[in-house]
Amino acid sequence: MKQKTPKQVKSLFLSDIHLGFSGSQSDKLLSLLKSYEYENLFLIGDIIDLWSMKRKLYWSKSQNDVFKHVIKKANKGINVIFIPGNHDELLREYCGETFANIRIECEWIHETQDGKRLLLLHGDKFDLVVQNNK
User: Is the dihedral of CA 72, 73, 76, 78 positive or negative?
Assistant: First the structure.
């Protein structure tokens, strides 16, 4: 079977992946990640579901494959920015740090090719229910 040529994009934006949750569709995510070539990968919150893992530890092979794929991309020079959300908020204390060539930031300003500036952050900052019920 002939393998498809990955689509070329400048940046890929992903959110609410929930690795560590049994309902995460990590096999489909890995397929998506492999179908694109990109310079920037923005992981915008709830990438790792620490809430779910606190109740029951779960980490499948396909979730591990996604994790390894992202680290491999970062080690090959892809700019990977991880912005924690409410499900992985414990990682916010590491904002400004870099681990395995993945930069952790609480928010990020992304400039598009046409010069527009976009504020990247996870939406839990605007959710009063989440803010008031930690």
Answer: negative
